[in-house]
C-alpha cells in the first residue's frame, strides 16, 4: 500500500471528531524524508486548540498507524504554544 493511502486511512480514524467540530484536514504532501505536511481546514484552521489537536490527535494517529512517517506538520498552523 502506498504511503499516502496509509496516511489517509489513519486520518479517516480521526476525521469524524474533526468534522464534529466543523473542521477537517487535507494532506498537502509527504516529503522525501517522510514528513507529512497537512492543511487544517474549516474550524481547525482558526481554532485556538488546533495546535493541541494537531499534536495529540492527528500526529499521534498518523505516526502510530504509519511507522515510516518521521514527522507531521501543519502548513497553515499559526497558533503556537
Note the main attributes of this structure.
81 residues; alpha+beta; GMP Synthetase, Chain A, domain 3; 3-stranded mixed beta sheet; 2 helices; 3 strands
Please explain how this structure is put together.
With 81 residues, the protein is α+β, with helices and mostly antiparallel strands. The protein has one domain (3-74): Fe-S cluster assembly (FSCA) (GMP Synthetase, Chain A, domain 3). It has two helices and three strands. The protein has a three-stranded mixed sheet with strand order 1-2-3, covered by helices on one side. The longest helix is centred in the first third of the chain and has 18 residues, at 3-20. The chain is globular and about 30 Å long. It starts with a helix and ends in a 7-residue tail after the last strand. The mean pLDDT is 87.
Which secondary structure elements does this structure contain, and how are they paired or packed?
Blueprint: H1 3-20, E1 23-30, E2 35-42, H2 50-65, E3 71-74
Parallel strand pairs: 2-3
Antiparallel strand pairs: 1-2
Helix pairs in contact: 1-2
* CATH class descriptor name: Alpha Beta
CATH architecture: 2-Layer Sandwich
* Strand order in space, largest sheet: 1-2-3
Q: Give the total of beta strands.
A: 3
Number of helices: 2
Q: What is the percent of helical residues? A: 40-55%
Oligomer: single chain
The average pLDDT score comes to: 87
Order of helices and strands: HEEHE
**Domains, number:** 1
**Unreliable stretches, pLDDT < 50, 5 or more residues?**
none
Stated plainly, the CATH topology is called: GMP Synthetase, Chain A, domain 3
Q: What name goes with the CATH superfamily?
A: Fe-S cluster assembly (FSCA)
Amino acid at each position: 500500500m502506498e504511503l499516502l493511502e496509509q496516511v489517509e486511512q489513519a486520518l479517516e480514524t480521526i476525521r469524524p471528531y474533526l468534522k464534529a467540530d466543523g473542521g477537517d484536514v487535507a494532506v498537502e504532501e509527504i516529503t522525501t524524508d517522510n514528513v507529512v505536511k497537512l492543511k487544517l481546514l474549516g474550524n481547525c484552521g482558526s481554532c485556538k486548540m488546533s495546535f493541541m489537536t494537531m499534536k495529540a490527535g492527528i500526529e499521534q494517529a498518523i505516526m502510530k498507524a504509519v511507522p515510516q512517517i518521521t514527522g507531521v506538520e501543519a502548513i497553515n498552523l499559526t497558533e503556537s504554544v
